[in-house]
Design brief:
The protein is an alpha/beta fold. Helix content is 39%, strand content 16%. It has a single domain, classed as Alpha/Beta hydrolase fold, catalytic domain (Rossmann fold, 3-Layer(aba) Sandwich), CATH 3.40.50.1820. It holds the Pfam family Abhydrolase_6.
C-alpha cells in the first residue's frame, strides 16, 4: 500500500470521488460515520456500534489501520438476523488514542474489557476478522473460555506469513505522522469490504487521516507485528468443532454468506 501526502481538502475530494455518483450512501451507512457508544476500557474509551437483536452476537474486527466503518456494507445485513457489533480499536475511528503498544494481544484484551463493560461479556459470539483483525479475532476466541462459538476469517493474516512490505509501510506511516502534524494528511484508501462509500463516511475517513494519533496507532501496529505473531503462536491451539470459515476475497456478499453459514451451525 502506497501512502502520499496531500491536503485534507484534497483527501476529502478523492474519497468523495471514490464514492461514485450516487446521490445517497447505502442505507444505514451514515451511522458508521459518527461516534456511537463510548465504552470505558480502563481510563480511555472505545467507540462501539451495535444493531439488531438475537444471539449469538456477531463482532467484527477490522484489518490493520482500519476502523469499524469498514464493515458498513456487511454489518447491516447481518443485523437483520442477529445482534451485530463493530468497534474502533484504540487510535482509530472515534476511539481514544492508543496509550500502549498496538499488539494483537493488547487489542484482544481491550475487546474483552469493551464487551464486559458494555454488559455483553456473557456471549456467545461469532467473531469476524479481516487481515490483521483476523489475528485479533482468533486471539480473543482462544482466550474467551468458550464464549466464541464461531469464526469467519477474511483474507486472514497468519503469524507465520507476515507481509513482506512491513518496513516500507512503517516508514510511510511515520512520514504521515509528520504530515498530519503539519496540517496535511495521507490517503486513506478504500477497501472492497466497504462497498460504496457515501459523502458522510468519506468525510469521516478524511478527518481521521488528518490526525497524528491515527498514524501513531497504525505505526505501532506495524512496528509490533512480530510481537503480535509471537503472541498468536503462544496462544494457538485447535479450535475443536467450532465452525471456522475462511474467505479468500473480501467482497461484502462473500463475507455475509460466510457469516450466515457459521450462524446456521450454531447450536
Amino acid at each position: 500500500m502506497t501512502h502520499f501526502a496531500l491536503s485534507a481538502a484534497f483527501a476529502t475530494s478523492l474519497l468523495l470521488a471514490a464514492a461514485g455518483a450516487h446521490a445517497a450512501p447505502p442505507a444505514g451507512q451514515d451511522a458508521f460515520a459518527i461516534g456511537q457508544v463510548k465504552v470505558d476500557v480502563g481510563g480511555r474509551k472505545l467507540n462501539m456500534y451495535c444493531a439488531g437483536k438475537g444471539s449469538p452476537t456477531v463482532v467484527f474486527e477490522a484489518d490493520g489501520g482500519r476502523a469499524g466503518w469498514d464493515w458498513s456494507a456487511v454489518m447491516p445485513e447481518v443485523a437483520k438476523r442477529t445482534r451485530a457489533c463493530v468497534y474502533d480499536r484504540a487510535g482509530y475511528g472515534f476511539s481514544d488514542p492508543a496509550i500502549r503498544a498496538s499488539t494483537a494481544g493488547n487489542a484482544s484484551r481491550d475487546l474483552s474489557f469493551l464487551l464486559k463493560n458494555a454488559r455483553m461479556m456473557e456471549g456467545p459470539y461469532v467473531m469476524v476478522g479481516a487481515g490483521y483483525g483476523a489475528m485479533i479475532a482468533q486471539q480473543f476466541a482462544l482466550r474467551s473460555r468458550g464464549a466464541v462459538t464461531g469464526l469467519v476469517l477474511v483474507e486472514a493474516m497468519h503469524e507465520d506469513a507476515l507481509p513482506g512490505d512491513r518496513a516500507a509501510s512503517l516508514e510511510a506511516a511515520a512520514a504521515c505522522i509528520d504530515s498530519a502534524g503539519q496540517g496535511a494528511a495521507c490517503a486513506y484508501p478504500n477497501t472492497a469490504i466497504n462497498g460504496e462509500i457515501g459523502p458522510a463516511l468519506a468525510a469521516a475517513q478524511a478527518a481521521q487521516v488528518a490526525k497524528p494519533a491515527y498514524w501513531r496507532a497504525r505505526a505501532s501496529e506495524l512496528d509490533n507485528l512480530a510481537a503480535s505473531a509471537n503472541q498468536m503462536r503462544t496462544a494457538r491451539k485447535p479450535f475443536g468443532d467450532m465452525p471456522v470459515v475462511e474467505v479468500a476475497h473480501g467482497e461484502p456478499s462473500a463475507i455475509i454468506a460466510a457469516v450466515m453459514q457459521v450462524l446456521d451451525k450454531q447450536k
